[in-house]
Specification:
This protein is an alpha/beta fold. It has two domains: 150 residues, Cobalamin-binding domain (Rossmann fold), CATH 3.40.50; 308 residues, TIM Barrel (Alpha-Beta Barrel), CATH 3.20.20.70. Helix content is 40%, strand content 15%. The strands form four sheets. The chain has a seven-stranded mixed beta sheet, sandwiched between helices. A six-stranded parallel beta sheet has the order 10-13-14-15-16-17. Strand 13, helix 9 and strand 14 form a beta-alpha-beta unit. Helix 9 runs parallel beside helix 11. The protein is globular. It binds cobalamin and iron/sulfur cluster. The site of iron/sulfur cluster has 11 residues, from helix 7. One of its GO terms (cellular component) is cytosol. InterPro entries: Aldolase_TIM, BchE-like, Cobalamin-bd, Cobalamin-bd_sf, Elp3/MiaA/NifB-like_rSAM, HpnR_B12_rSAM, Methyltransferase_Class_B, rSAM. One of its GO terms (biological process) is methylation. Its cofactor is [4Fe-4S] cluster.
């Protein structure tokens, strides 16, 4: 069967800092190819929409799958589905990915026939049975599949991560993937899932707090096959298990593989497993993203981060000593007043780290979706990108965005200040010499994208597609939030103990 897989456009507010390959979609593509299908992939993060239209016309796909990790992409995905059906009414159109797994029935209704099915959960195991069922019938017996006529059994998780290897050969324009100065940059997955349970996050509900690892041999084989000099490790929390990080490092040392790395982790994991991060710093670990989320104990408790402010401060010191650049994330509570923004600006200017701000947003699949949702001021999918306020703001909305953007601008200027610019100039010159322009564009694009008037105007746009109104979940059994069936053999098999 001819299968076309599509990743929607980048969300504007994140495109400035990074744009990365659609790793999940590449794995789905590999699973379909292993099952004998002919597969093409179009990533609209780096390809014009007109190119997608051309591929649809030339390739005449029999099935089209769209990746929906991000809620804010749902309206665009529905429009793509409509476009496909207009030209190819018999083509089977399906959606899959993180976010759509939590709102599958609703999206099928909204698409009004343009989408034939949503695949919930991990896509790899679904591809072979799904495409067989498209040809032979029996869609509603495929695990994870939801159609307007019924749904298959709950999706099951894969046992390991080693196979299939992402079909990186299907992504064109790979030079356009970057994160900060690391360009071009590929992505890799060493582990999947997270054993913690933060209240604002859906990573743990999607994977049911399970935690699976690639073998060190497979991880090293994959890294050896990656052509880019830079690699973003997509794991939710890197190196939870130090022996796993060490085993991969040992393979890389043995094979003399050297690249520059960017990863995400938690302060407590860094403090506990300093040696493994030190070893990776020697192997090329340059950047680390720490989701600190709040500066005070009260905020950390509210988000159920299970970390105290002192651990965060100590983790920053450790990272500095290791020579790793750190980006910190802080969650902006829409209730903040001007004084609170001022304090955050003061903090951001007092530390050498890069500080990112994201606005607290209840997403389907998170606990706060059920507790905060009665306060939602909008159901416009496009505003659920953690750069807009979707619950009431303490300040008038326009003033809230002015404070938010002012704070982001102060932080941005700090990093583009004279000394940084001098340091950046060397990197910039090197990247430009290699024909890499993403970092250069990032340095100059900030003011055109981050603009309070534009953010307020985003709330005034006519809304065609809205999120479903959340149902209040019964307190108690949080497993009701899980996407996959969780057989006992799969539940947190190797995760460290995390208090319930
Ligand atoms: C790596 C990552 C990124 C990377 C790379 C994104 C990319 N290009 O793919 C970067 C750093 C760029 C990023 C950015 C953002 N991210 Co992000 N990201 C992740 C993270 C940690 C892992 C995703 C990943 O690569 N996993 C590994 C691959 C193999 O799995 P996968 O992509 O999920 O794909 C599997 C399934 O989803 C499914 N699948 C996926 N696509 C398809 C398609 C079909 C047809 C089918 C059948 C199945 C299928 O099958 C795949 C294989 O099993 C997730 C959290 C998580 N654990 O999922 C958050 C997450 C997806 N991100 C999130 C957010 C909020 C963002 C940002 C908005 C943050 C910001 N401040 O701007 C931006 C927006 C980016 C954009 N689109 O412009 C949220 C999504 C919230 C939501 N409900 O919309 C998540 C869930 C994190 C969270 N804790 O809440 N992100
Ligand atoms: S530790 Fe990170 S990935 Fe895990 S639940 Fe918390 S925010 Fe999500």
């Amino acid at each position: 069967m001819r299968l076309l897989l599509v990743h929607p456009s980048a969300l504007m507010y994140s495109e400035i800092f990074l744009r990365l390959e659609p790793l999940g979609l590449e794995r789905v593509a590999a699973a379909a190819r292993d099952a004998g299908h002919q597969v093409r992939l179009v990533d609209l993060q780096v390809t014009r929409r007109s190119r997608l239209d051309a591929v649809i016309d030339e390739f005449a796909p029999e099935a089209v799958g769209v990746s929906l990790n991000y809620l804010a992409n749902i309206p665009e995905a529905i429009e793509i589905a409509q476009r496909v059906k207009q030209g190819l009414p018999d083509c089977f159109v399906f959606f899959g990915g993180h976010s759509v797994s939590f709102v599958a029935d609703h999206v099928l209704e909204q698409a009004a026939g343009a989408v034939d099915a949503v695949v919930r959960g991990e896509g790899e195991p679904a591809m072979q049975p799904l495409l067989e069922a498209v040809r032979d019938g029996g869609l509603t017996s495929v695990p994870g599949v939801v159609t307007r006529d019924g749904r298959g059994p709950m999706p099951r998780m894969m046992h390991g991560l080693d196979e299939p290897r992402p079909a990186r050969d299907l992504t064109a324009h790979r030079r356009r993937y970057f994160i900060g100065e690391l360009e071009p940059c590929a992505s890799i997955e060493f582990t999947r899932g997270c054993p913690w349970d933060c209240s604002f996050c859906s990573a743990w509900t999607f994977y049911g707090r399970s935690y699976r690892k690639a073998t060190s041999e497979a991880a090293a084989d994959e890294l050896a096959a990656i052509r880019e000099p830079n690699v973003f490790i997509v794991d939710d929390v890197a190196f939870i298990r130090p022996e796993h990080g060490d085993a991969i490092a040992a393979e890389l040392e043995r094979r003399r593989i050297r690249k520059q790395y960017y990863l995400e982790t938690r302060s407590d994991v860094l403090l506990r497993n300093q040696e493994v991060f030190e070893r990776w710093a020697r192997l090329g670990l340059r950047y680390m993203f720490l989701g600190m989320e709040a500066l005070d104990a009260e905020g950390l408790e509210l988000y159920r981060k299970r970390i105290d402010p002192d651990e965060n401060v100590r983790a920053l010191k450790v990272a500095r000593n290791l020579g790793i650049n750190v980006a910190i994330n802080l969650i902006v509570d829409p209730a903040w007043d001007a004084e609170r923004f001022r304090m955050v600006r003061e903090f951001a200017l007092s530390v050498p780290e890069i500080v990112h701000l994201t606005v607290m947003t209840p997403y389907p699949g998170t606990e706060i979706w059920h507790t905060e949702s009665r306060r939602l001021t909008t159901l416009d999918y496009r505003l659920f990108d953690i750069q807009h306020a979707v619950v009431p703001t303490g300040l008038p909305l326009a003033e809230f965005y002015r404070e938010l953007v002012r704070t982001q601008a102060v932080i941005n200027r700090k990093h583009l200040g004279v000394s940084t610019a001098l340091g950046a100039a060397r990197i910039l010159a090197g990247n430009l010499a290699r024909g890499q322009t993403n970092f250069a564009r990032m340095l100059f694009k900030f003011n055109s994208v981050y603009n309070p008037d534009r953010q307020v105007a985003d709330h005034q746009r006519p809304v065609r597609y809205e999120l479903p109104l959340p149902v209040r979940a019964a307190p108690g059994d949080r497993r009701q939030l899980y996407v996959h069936a969780t057989p006992t053999a799969h539940r947190r098999p190797t995760a460290p103990p995390v208090p319930d």
